[in-house]
Amino acid sequence: MEPFKIVAVSAGLSQPSSTRLLADRLVEATRHLLEERSPRPVDVRVVELRELAVDIAHNLVTGFPGPALRSAVEAVTGADGVIAVTPVFSASYSGLFKSFFDVIDNTELVAKPVLIGATGGTARHSLALEHALRPLFAYLCSHVVRTAVFAASEDWGAGDTQSDSLNVRVTRAGRELAALVLQQPDGAGSGDAVVPFEEQLAKLRISQ
């Protein structure tokens, strides 16, 4: 049975990185929901952009990706669902994050289910998700889930990675991405038919 392919792109620069930590939590939430609803296995890959920074710069000036960058691009374009997480600098995504998606042909992510996330020192940066990341993937014609997840320093607490508020948002976003992946032409694994909203509304009116 072909596994679901979930690829997370983390643009964190430090190690350890709160950006990578958020990416990992979003991955696990998505994996859990997919495994709960489908018998298909889930294959996960995390792309660390800091390890590809030199390759990305070379590709931008030469037009030719190295083997590691080519592998990362193929993983993202071949994924059933993508999780894209960046730190926020100057009220927007990082230059490394943007440069990586500039490397990808702008037709390769059409209709691709995407979950966006970001990290920053304060919740004031959370608007970057809506005025920077969401428009980027809208331009690429990706299918971005409704819930975007921002994690500020206070969300982690004093070493606490299980903030209730953050956990609720991560779980909701993972559920939404899993639902989109399952709705793909080859993604149905639960055996449950997707009932159109209009049909659900009609049934509700009849029952009232």
Automatic annotation (TrEMBL):
Any one Gene Ontology molecular-function term assigned to this protein's record: oxidoreductase activity
Domain of life: Bacteria
UniProt keyword annotations, A-Z: Flavoprotein, FMN, Oxidoreductase
Residues of the NADPH-dependent FMN reductase-like domain: 5-156
Alphabetized Pfam families for the sequence: FMN_red (PF03358)
Gene3D superfamilies attached to this UniProt entry: 3.40.50.360
Official protein name in the record: FMN reductase
Organism field: Streptomyces spiralis
